[in-house]
Amino acid sequence: MNGTAPLLEVHGLKKHFPVRRGLFGGARGVVRAVDGVSFSIAPGETLSLVGESGCGKSTVGRSILRLVPPTAGEVWLGGTRIDRLPTPQLRPLRRQMQVVFQDPFSSLNPRLRVRDILAEPLRNFGLARRGRGLDEQLVELLETVRLPADALGRYAHEFSGGQRQRIGIARALAPGAALLICDEAVSALDVSVKAQIVNLLAELQARLGLALLFISHDLAIVEHLTHRVAVMYLGRIVELADRDALFAAPRHPYTRALLSAVPLPDPAAARNRIVLRGDVPSPLNPPPGCHFHTRCPYAFDRCRSEPPALRSFGNDERPHLVACHLDALPDRSAA
Amino acid sequence: MILSPLARRRIAVFRAHRRGLWSLRIFLLLFGLCLCAEFIANDRPLLIRFDGHWFAPVLHDYSEDAFGSQFMPMEADYTDPELQATIRRHGWMIWPAIPFRYDTLVKNLPVPAPAPPSLRNWLGTDDQARDVLARVIYGFRLSVLFGFTLTAVASVIGIAAGAVQGFYGGSVDLLFQRFIEIWQGMPQLYLLIILGSIIAPSFWVLLIFLLLFSWMSLTGVVRAEFLRGRNLDYIRAAHALGVSDLAVMGRHILPNALVATLTFLPFILSGSVTVLASLDFLGFGLPPGSPSLGELVSQGKNNLQAPWLGITAFIVLGGVLTLLIFVGEAVRDSFDPRKAGQ
Questions:
Q1: pLDDT, tens digit, 9 for 90 and up, residues B278-314
Q2: Segment B198-228, tens digit of pLDDT
Q3: Contact at CB, B233 and A101, closer than 8 angstroms
Q4: Residue of chain B minimizing CA distance to A174
Q5: Which residue among B4, B232, B237 places its CB closest to the CB of A171?
Q6: Model's pTM, two decimal places?
Q7: Which chain A residue's Cα is nearest to B232?
Q8: Which terminus of chain B is more solvent-facing, meaning fewer CB atoms within 10 Å of its CB: N or C?
Q9: How far, in Å, CA of A157 to CA of A255, rounded?
Q10: Alpha-carbon dihedral angle through residues A79, A80, A84, A86, given to the nearest 10 degrees
């Protein structure tokens, strides 16, 4: 993974939503949904973005896709900076990055047949073949996601959730995307279906060399298909590391708490759950210093005043970035 | 065209709504008849057989000297008893059921106008000796055509405005919404009267005047649909696919928004008929002499001694509006998910 030029680079991405009141009321405050996030994804690599709901992980995806304009920061896609690009210039680049949404029921237009849903991106980017060729092209797309060819003439509501998600993936693959942003793409599915979709994504990645930005709150799923994991808390990345390093030895107290909350299949397994106190603070009024200090079992004075920078542990080959003032976490039993 | 199951269910609900269904049938029948008003009420014969030649005066103007050299080379006046007698001597002619147009002056009235209903004038005549039934037929056609045109143009403008407002949201929406609120607060009738007294209104001028205000009736509901629609995931996906704004609006959101607007159309239509009638009643509507239901109402008010004028105006205008409202109710019910879902 390392050494190749990254497909996607994000530097200091910020997305702030102004909160207004009344007709002429000025900004009452800003919701710092994403507050300075940096990462990169290499071609064919999977980066997972995990965190609780409301931590800004979906907003990161949408800002990269320019579905919402980012407030600050840079987004580079394949060597082109796209965060300030005017719409006409951005349009051809959209071919390279596509999105799969969480809800398979609202992500497909109920009034269109599968044929029209899949043909739209092809026509839009001028990739559609003429006449009969288009149907062959669409059937090929359906085959990539393991759907039968007769699905073309049917409406999206005639399919199950998993099948609809496959249609959504086919639509995202249609323009030949190199980067797929999966925004909670499997979270709304049943466990068995979830596994199928995850396997499909892994297989597509191996076959097509897709890079995936996998946004999820579910660490158990993430562990199966990711190369690297970025953990987000209140708009910031608190830990970014290779999968094995992160799951084996988390260095941030928040990551450790998240990992301890992953359900284990074995009910008898001994576990030492770290239960975080309190709620996630409002991003409208985030706590000073380290955002996590209100709930951190190891917080000390410095955490309340000075926001920790991402520091690199591990080697240059496999950096393990952590935003914590502690050099090492105390032993678990101390929590 | 293949209808979706939902559309079929909606049609079934509409058909089960007997009052609305019959209102629609009666309305369409009356409207269809009035579209052929020239063949039902006209002051020229439908067909003439004259010396082995066919004449169709309804469709074509003939010179009077075509029927004999004793007539002048001018447009034939078929109400002329002398011409009628000549044609009868040389052949025959078929008259429409009502031998008057909306502007035909009825000659030889036994009493001064307005004349009461008789065998010759089924609904009597108005105070300018014109046949009321003929005027009602032409007036109904004009009112409904005006209403249809106004509704269609107003809907197109209103839907476009609401779509832009809801789709772009933000400051576009904010400014546009304030403008609409101010514009809606204007005293519409006064403005129409003032405009009507400055520029002599014809059919199209009046249409433009009324458009100034009636386009707003649909913006609200379309705006709401677009505000809702633009946050759906498939709209986001379409944006991510680089689909142009216009295509997203037209292909992905508009079909849903149209369903909501359809329920309003019969009510907008009846509103258009009413506003035209009220302007005509006040004398600021269509040019004098036009067949108009509003003008008939005003004649009824001015001639209380001739109750057939007022009663006819009441029944026709009330009947049209009632039919449209009943149709509207049935349409509304058929789009109601609680009823269509059963």
A1: 988 988 888 888 898 999 999 999 999 999 999 999 9
A2: 888 888 998 998 999 889 989 999 999 999 8
A3: yes
A4: B241
A5: B237
A6: 0.79
A7: A106
A8: N
A9: 38
A10: -170
